[in-house]
Amino acid sequence: MKMMTPQSEADLAECIAGASGPLWIQGGDTRGCSGSGTVLSTRGIAGVTLYEPGSLTLVVKAGTPVAEVKTLLRGENQQLAFEPMDHRVVLGTAGEPTMGGVFAANVSGPRRIQVGAARDFLLGVRFVDGRGQVLRNGGRVMKNVTGYDLVKLMAGAHGTLGVLSEVALKVLPLAETMTTLAVRNIDLASGVRALSAALGSPFDVTGAAYDPQAQTAYVRLEGFAASVAYRARELDKRLRVFGEVEELTDSASLWRDIRDVRDFAGRPGDVWRISVKPTDAVHLIPALAATRTLCDWGGGLVWALMPEGDDVRAKMTVPGHATLVRATSNTNTVSRHHPEPAPLAALSAGLRAQFDPRGVLNPGLMG
């Protein structure tokens, strides 16, 4: 398959303006997505444009590797707030995750329950639309805008409205310490109730997951050491009504594994990502008859490893939406993204017609 790798925003605009057919947008090529047409890679548009640690502000080009950004931030005791998942673990892909790819897919990890999604830290964007025009929206500080909020619109659009060339984002201080309370030997219903109790407490929980295979609920606390110690003691008292509580002071790898769904890696089957109301996970998981499952976001995010070809959407007994993250050849007839309700689909089609009237950017990916 033909590939174009522009080295600048101007090159990117020229590539899109001159396209005579479909373009498949690619960042670090870690998600295993493929489509018809020419591959347009942003990996050559990389580098840090601005970093102001004192104002917690970072501006980077879209092809900048996530690992490079994390290293830069760690040097100033700062971090990305939204813990982007590394898809290479569960997909078995290579490549290098990029900042543009993270925001294009709005990739958000366990800390989302406290701080919000990746899009909530996006301050400004530069991108090239389907006509080859360079557009800019937002800036380097949080503010409201009128008209199209292109900053939020581009996050999660998967490159169907435009190709990101630069992003400005807010970062956070690195937590001094982390601890995790593990509630052992509890069933799914009790596990979700324990997570709800923790999230409803005043103790600033930054992670809330349940592993049905281990029958364990995990609750994470981060911050200054004295504060974390106090909150852990108090939260321990609330969680003991659900089962035996164990404190895990060295749990960074645990949350990386939850973030990346490492338990599914190398296992046969399709991988689905399902968003539901947290308490509905109790009803959904038994109905799926999945090989393995994992709950994050207090039960609001359910990962399911399914037999090849099983359509999760046909088994959903509660409202929500399901995304096919890893598909086998037997699942080719199932769409990757959850079908949109008619009014939303019409709105999405209108936006694509506005920003990509020729329909060259990832055609068919979202609709």
Q: What do you see in this structure?
A:
This protein folds into 3 domains: 3-173, Uridine Diphospho-n-acetylenolpyruvylglucosamine Reductase, domain 3; 177-260, Lrp/AsnC effector binding domain/regulation of amino acid metabolism (RAM) domain (Alpha-Beta Plaits, 2-Layer Sandwich), CATH 3.30.70; 262-331. It is built from 12 helices and 18 strands. It has helices at 9-17, 66-74, 88-91, 99-104, 112-115, 150-154, 188-199, 225-239, 252-260, 281-288, 312-315, 342-355; strands spanning 3-4, 23-26, 38-41, 48-52, 57-61, 78-79, 122-128, 134-138, 163-170, 172-173, 177-184, 205-211, 216-223, 244-248, 270-276, 292-296, 301-306, 320-326. The strands form 5 sheets. A 5-stranded antiparallel sheet has the order 4-5-9-7-8. The radius of gyration is 21 Å and the shape is globular. The model is unreliable at 141-146 (pLDDT under 50).
Task: Kindly estimate the percentage of residues that lie in beta strands according to DSSP.
Answer: 25-35%
Helix/strand/pairing category: alpha+beta
- Order of adjacent strands in the largest pleated sheet: 4-5-9-7-8
Number of helices: 12
What are the low-pLDDT stretches, counting only 5+ consecutive residues below 50? 141-146
Overall residue-averaged pLDDT value: 93
Distance between the termini: 23 Å
Order of helices and strands: EHEEEEHEHHHEEHEEEHEEHEHEHEEHEH
The biggest sheet amounts to:
5 strands, antiparallel
Percent range for helical residues?
A: 25-40%
Q: Which fold does the CATH topology of the largest domain refer to?
A: Uridine Diphospho-n-acetylenolpyruvylglucosamine Reductase, domain 3
Question: For the record, what CATH class of the largest domain applies?
Answer: Alpha Beta
Question: How many separate structural domains?
Answer: 3
